[in-house]
Design goal:
The chain is an alpha/beta fold and about 425 residues long. The chain has a domain at about 75-150 and about 180-325: Rossmann fold (3-Layer(aba) Sandwich), CATH 3.40.50. It contains ten helices and nine strands. It has helices spanning about 1-25, 30-35, 100-110, 135-150, 165-170, 210-230, 245-265, 305-325, 340-355, 410-415; strands at about 90-95, 115-120, 185-190, 195-200, 200-205, 235, 265-270, 285, 295. Strands 2-1-3-6-7 form a five-stranded parallel β-sheet, sandwiched between helices. The protein has a two-stranded antiparallel sheet with strand order 4-5. Strands 8-9 form a two-stranded antiparallel sheet. The chain is elongated, with a radius of gyration of 52 Å.
Length: about 425
């Protein structure tokens, strides 16, 4: 009996344990014995995973390329100026490097009040006279001069002829671009030229004697074709630089520009002192066109800020307007006077010849009436009376004095003799009382 009760109790316990094991199947076999016999406290069950969505794999980070910081506007070449106005009839071309780009941008802003003048930016960044393999400024000047000469030639009128279909198709094509009209040229470069220059198979060092000789020839090669095409040229000098060595080199270039540009017929515009301090040294700040002190130079100590470009353009505008206001070609034709004026001129010249005793020119076909001819004045003597400068003046009849000489006038008594006028009664100088 006791044995059966013991078996039933054991079976009841096993059933209870199996039920707990079924409910906690995730605990495993160890969890079952821990629940039955006790033991260390089990950890809380982990949160169930979501089975609806597929596991997301984390991408492996790829190394990013390090980007170079973008250059600031003041340390780089400014944007090209806007297209000239459609009403522009006179055009100013700007040649050179990044400083010339600043000049072109400033001139386009300063000349907005004059839409008849257009500014054309032909500058090339990082260019110069040393590396003509990169950009040949002498060749560009020759091409610009050729375009100017082509624009001044009048087109020759041709008689209309019957055209074939092929010729009509060619005429339907867009017309070629007209030649450029160049009224003024501004040149500014040199900041990229402090490098060896190729001389045949060899290279010469900057500012050496041979280097200066070749550089001078290239300066003249830029100016000569433009002046031959009757185009006014202004070569702009370089402003002071912050680096002492580089500033000394730019001063030497300015001297080469002045000597050789003027020799070729251009005008040299020296702006060194206008962008320097009172001691003639580099100064990033200075007065602008309104007289306010602003930043004129970029952070690299070479380029110009927009305010500096406008100040540079202020000096250039004076040269441009002065050159464009002048007559392009002097008039050498002699004015033809009307016939009546010609006749009057001949009569006056004939009268002058007659008075001077010269032979009178033969009369012209047209004569004035006799009444209109003025009477001739009496002939003048060749010499007048001879008077001695040291002789005393004599009275009529050579008498020095006359008894009945007229009394001196009141003015003579007052001014010559100094006699006071008679006192009037009651006046302050009347002392008769």
């Amino acid at each position: 009996m006791k044995r059966r009760a013991r078996l039933r109790l054991t079976a009841a316990l096993v059933a209870i344990c199996l039920a707990g094991a079924t409910a906690r199947a995730e605990d495993g076999l160890g969890g079952f014995f821990q629940h039955l016999f006790g033991g260390p406290q089990s950890q809380p069950p982990a949160a169930p995973r979501a089975t609806e969505a597929a596991p997301v794999s984390t991408p492996r980070p790829t190394p990013r390329k390090r980007r170079k910081p973008a250059p600031s506007r003041e340390a780089s070449a400014p944007a090209a100026p806007a297209t000239p106005s459609a009403t522009a009839s006179k055009f100013v071309y700007v040649l050179g490097d990044s400083l010339a780009i600043s000049a072109a941008e400033g001139m386009a802003d300063e000349l907005q009040a004059k839409p008849e003048i257009g500014v054309i930016d032909r500058a090339r960044d990082a260019s110069g006279l040393v590396r003509d393999d990169y950009f040949d400024w002498a060749k560009a000047a020759r091409e610009l001069a050729a375009e100017q000469e082509a624009s001044t030639k009048e087109p020759v009128a041709k008689e209309p002829v019957a055209k074939e279909p092929a010729a009509k198709a060619r005429d339907a094509a867009p017309a070629p671009k007209p030649a450029a009209k160049v009224d003024f040229v501004v040149v500014m470069l040199g900041i990229n030229d402090m490098q060896p220059m190729r001389d045949g198979k060899d290279y010469v060092d900057p500012l050496s004697d041979r280097w200066k000789e070749i550089y001078a020839q290239r300066i003249q090669a830029v100016v000569t074709p433009l002046r031959a095409a009757h185009i006014p040229v202004v070569w702009v000098g370089l402003p002071p630089m912050r680096a002492e060595k580089f500033n000394t080199q730019m001063v030497a270039l300015n001297q080469l520009f002045k000597d050789n540009a003027e020799r070729a017929g251009a005008k040299f515009l020296d702006l060194f002192d206008d962008f320097a301090d009172q001691g003639g040294q580099f100064d990033a700040f200075g007065p602008n066109v309104e007289g306010q002190k602003v930043k004129l130079r970029g952070g690299d100590g070479i380029h110009l800020t927009p305010a500096g470009g406008k100040k540079l353009a202020h000096f250039l505008d004076v040269e441009v307007l002065d050159a464009l206001d002048k007559t392009e070609k002097p008039k050498t034709d002699i004015a033809v006077l009307p016939p009546d004026i010609n006749k009057a001129t001949e009569d006056i010249n004939e009268q002058i010849r007659r008075e001077m005793g010269q032979p009178v020119a033969p009369p012209s076909e047209v004569h004035l009436p006799e009444a209109a001819i003025a009477p001739q004045p009496p002939p003048k003597p060749e010499a007048g009376a001879i008077n001695s400068l040291a002789a005393r003046p004599a009275s009529p009849g050579a008498a020095l004095a006359s008894a009945n000489a007229p009394a001196p006038s009141e003015a003579a008594r007052l001014l010559r003799r100094g006699e006071p006028p008679p006192a009037a009664p009651g006046r302050a100088d009347d002392f008769t009382r």
